[in-house]
Amino acid sequence: MKYSVSMPDLQSFPLTMVVGNALDPSSPEAIKNISKNILYRIPQPIIVIDYQGRIVMVNKFFCNMTHPPITENELNNITFEDLSFTDKALNKILDFGIPATEYRDNLKLNKKKIPVKINIYPIFGDSQVRLGAVCTIADITTDVNYGELLQKSEIILDSINTGVIAVDKNLKINMFNKYAEHCFSVSQNDFYGEPYAKFIENFEGDWVYILDSLKNNTEIRDYELVLLINGNQNHFICDTHLLRNDFNEIYGTILVFKNISHIKNIESQLARSEKLKAIGELAAGTAHEIRNPLTTIRGIIQFIHDKSLEKGVDCFDSYMQLLLSEVDRINKIISSFLDLAKPQKKTISLININELLNEVIMLMTNESLQREISIKKYLEESLPSINGDKDELAQVFLNIIRNAFQAMTASGDLTIKSYPVSDHSYINIDFIDNGECIPEDIITKIFDPFFSTKEEGTGLGLAISNRIVNDHKGELKVSSVLGEGTKFTVILPVCEVTKNETCN
């Protein structure tokens, strides 16, 4: 009797004859026993099925797939369908003689669910009569567990608020978690499989130390990296870790980082606050000491000026007027010192931000016309009210608008926007000009007291504005892009009691 099997790897192997003899009812019993004995010792789980789908025999490697092992007696009088969660592949083979390869299923053995990969091949006798099928089985529990572990690892990596970027030994990116995508405003699909150098060229910063670590297989700890992302300066704390296999061979590196920009901002605000406090205390004492004699000087100048006019001597009138205006200017600077040192008592009330902005814009309309500057308003309706000192916030808005005017040439544009953020918990007010860009080395100092780039500036306007906004539990931000201009953003919290009240 000749047998054939649609199983390429068995065509030249006596297993074809062995399986055929085991299935063929006409085979002598002795030959069947020899065939079963051979099948029993093949070092791979095997099931032999007759043309009705009944299990004819299994080998010991199949029995040992569960703990404790299943016995052959337990498999008597059952079909493959009883073991399988789905018998579609077997039906296709038994009905049409079409093999099924790399077929995944779950077998029910000893009340356990075992993931397997099955190859099922039909066995043919003379005249291509289908005798049944032989199934070779591979337990893929380890692969499935590894896949599940890998999936869990990816979920965990995407859930943590720490950036992770992995590169292989050729410095090509092979992993990029969600936090990293958020930090750099990119998708991992944009850089997956790409050289690391292609990624970093998109973000201006000092990458040298990290690149040296990646190229030389060294590790770094707590390295502070400063990058320019979308025109904003971002601070990161970075570590690199080498990836090694079981043979201690390096096959890649991971970069782990955390965006600490908000911490840097808080540190900067605290340092600025301490500086303001120290300078304010010094300024208060100095201002009082200067103001007293200055009052006397002004009084004497005024007296001389009045007496000169009474006697018809007006040749010194212009000089006297100049002296008086200069004394008044010094007095104004001293008042700023005192405002910095000891802020006036606030008058807190509910404020409609849009109304206040319209009042401030009206005050600046004449100057904007003189400078040929266009003011564009985009004030969102239905804004919640805020709690604050109206005069102080007006002072902040006026100061920012004046700075914008001074930064622009004729025919400039100033855009003012108001809109809610963070589920209407805060209101943002943007002042966007298209004037000269503020250099990076200056923008970090503009809120420092006495820092000014103007010849006649005191350097107190923005320092006081920042202090006022902070006193209102808000934040004053600035960003500047070459060729586009500067944006100041005032962020103010909405009054809890009036969160549902809106500004019309």
Q: What attributes does this structure have?
A:
disordered N terminus, six-stranded antiparallel sheet, Beta-Lactamase, 27% strand, 16 helices, alpha+beta
Concise account of the structure shown:
This protein has 16 helices and 21 strands. It is an alpha+beta fold and 504 residues long.
What would your notes on this structure say?
By secondary structure, the chain is of the alpha+beta class. The chain is 42% helix and 27% strand. Strands 1, 2, 3, 4, 5 and 6 form a six-stranded antiparallel beta sheet that branches. Strand 4 (100-109) and strand 5 form a beta hairpin. Helix 1 (15-23) packs across helix 2.
Topology:
Elements: E1 4-5, H1 15-23, H2 29-41, E2 46-50, E3 55-58, H3 60-63, H4 80-83, H5 88-96, E4 100-109, E5 112-124, E6 130-139, H6 141-159, E7 163-168, E8 173-176, H7 178-184, H8 188-191, H9 196-200, E9 204-205, H10 208-216, E10 223-229, E11 232-244, E12 250-259, H11 261-310, H12 317-341, E13 348-351, H13 353-371, E14 374-379, E15 383-384, E16 386-389, H14 390-407, E17 413-421, E18 426-433, H15 440-443, H16 461-471, E19 475-481, E20 485-493, E21 502-503
Parallel strand pairs: 14-17
Antiparallel strand pairs: 1-5, 2-3, 2-6, 4-5, 5-6, 7-8, 7-12, 9-10, 10-11, 11-12, 13-16, 15-21, 17-18, 18-20, 19-20
Helix pairs in contact: 1-2, 11-12, 13-14, 14-16
Compute the CA-based radius of gyration: 41 Å
User: What's the mean pLDDT score?
Assistant: 78
Q: Using DSSP, what is the number of strands?
A: 21
Number of domains: 4
Determine the CATH topology of the largest domain.
Heat Shock Protein 90
What is the overall number of helices? 16
CATH superfamily of the largest domain: Histidine kinase-like ATPase, C-terminal domain
- The CATH class designation of the largest domain is Alpha Beta
Instruction: Report the span from N to C terminus.
Output: 96 Å
Structural class: alpha+beta
Proportion of β residues?
25-35%
- Share in helix: 40-55%
Poorly predicted parts? 1-13
What is the overall silhouette? elongated
The major β-sheet equals: 6 strands, antiparallel
> What's the architecture of the largest domain in CATH terms?
2-Layer Sandwich
